[in-house]
Amino acid sequence: MLALIAGAEFFVLAATASQYGYHRDELYFLAAGQHLSWGYPDQPPFVPALARIIDSVAPGSLFALRLPSALAAAAVVVITGLLAREFGGGRGAQALAAGSMAIGAFVLGSGHLLSTSTFDLLAWTALLWLIVRTLRTDNDWLWLVTGFVAGLGLLDSNLVGFLVAAVVAGVLIAGPRRTLRTPWPWAGGFVAAVMWAPYVVWQARHGWPQLEVSRAIAAGRSGSSQPRWLFIPYQFGLISPFLAPVWIVGLVQLFRSPRLRWCRSIGWAYVVLTVVFIATGGKAYYIAGMFAVLLAVGAQPTVEWMKRNQSTLTRVAVGAAFVLSTGSAIITLPLIPVHSLHNTPVVDANYDAGETVGWPTYVREIASVYRPGEVILTSNYGEAGAVGRFGGALGLPEAFSGQTGYWYWGPPPEGADRVLAVGFDHGTLSDSFEQCDLAVRLDNHLDVDNDEQRAPVWSCSRPKQSWVDMWPRFRDT
Hints:
By secondary structure, the chain is mostly helical. It is 59% helix and 6% strand. It has helices at residues 2-16, 24-33, 46-57, 62-86, 91-102, 105-112, 116-137, 142-154, 159-174, 184-205, 209-218, 231-238, 244-256, 264-280, 291-308, 312-325, 328-332, 346-349, 351-354, 359-369, 381-390, 405-408, 426-430, 467-470; strands spanning 375-378, 400-401, 418-422, 433-441, 456-463.
């Protein structure tokens, strides 16, 4: 049954992988993959390296680029079912937990795109399965495997470190503290630290730019940031508000059931993570990896409730919850024809959907006002990545940008005195150039209101300083 559910998940994600277009983050990952490094200001190296490998094997294939994400989402579904089995769940409970995860909004959304979130979710789910199994069986050597998986996860996302710290805090609060008195978890931690070390060294050598990025996210500067007070309400939408009772029951069981005292630390880990992410301004989805274990715990009590209440109303209620939950696919997957997208609330509900629309059109419009010899300077990594991906066929050079990793890849060459500047306000440019004239405003011709719609493109000349002196002014996290 688990294989069937996971197979359906993979099929849906693979079938929709090529719809719309690249996400701005995917364009950045492809560019970062051409500048391989142990670290970047905003992330560890795994996804850029993966993007480079895929693009080398299947150049320009959006389907191939997103295929690993579909596989990762399917693996999350399987592991969720295995977690339910660890908690004593039968086949029905395993199917309920896996099915709930499979139609979860965040799982579908992250499984559709190549992103750090996709593999972070897989890492959290796999780690929680290993931790739960280790606590249940007392096979302490599994901590070494856990450490290895944590090390892999840390090369994708620093959030894995928060999970590990939260589980340790949960064990200190609720036990079993005996675990921390053995050398095995510390040996596993050492393995993870060694694997993570190259990235940490890169961050240290570059002044810890990840902290600056985190502060910018906490200040709401990310397109998918939410106010702190929305953190908890958003939890109900990460899977489905209609299936929320299942994971809520799971959370309650972790704290109240004597049978689950051995893993009460997992419940505390969820509480600790919630408090930490609210306090630090983290995004609501940072904690999405916990839902696999919460659904797994809540699945068997839900199945038992259904057996005790074998009425038509019960069956209808559960069936309706699943049917209504599939509606999240309309928001998270590119199911609506792109020419009709502007007539729907999809982009308002799902920021990422809008960021997969219009990039080739935008680049053609940039090319229409480009003059040979100009340097292309963009205000963000999406614009720069789009020029890099689509501009070569139109005679455009690689773009420069001051945002995230692009800033580290250097300023335009000295002597470049004519610039086509994309996405900046005139005031920013007037500090750096003697003259800037509006050349065009970008239009995706689909009426989709994304971050680049109506962005100005300026033709600027006569820099007021050398590029080395001006470059820090363009830096943007």
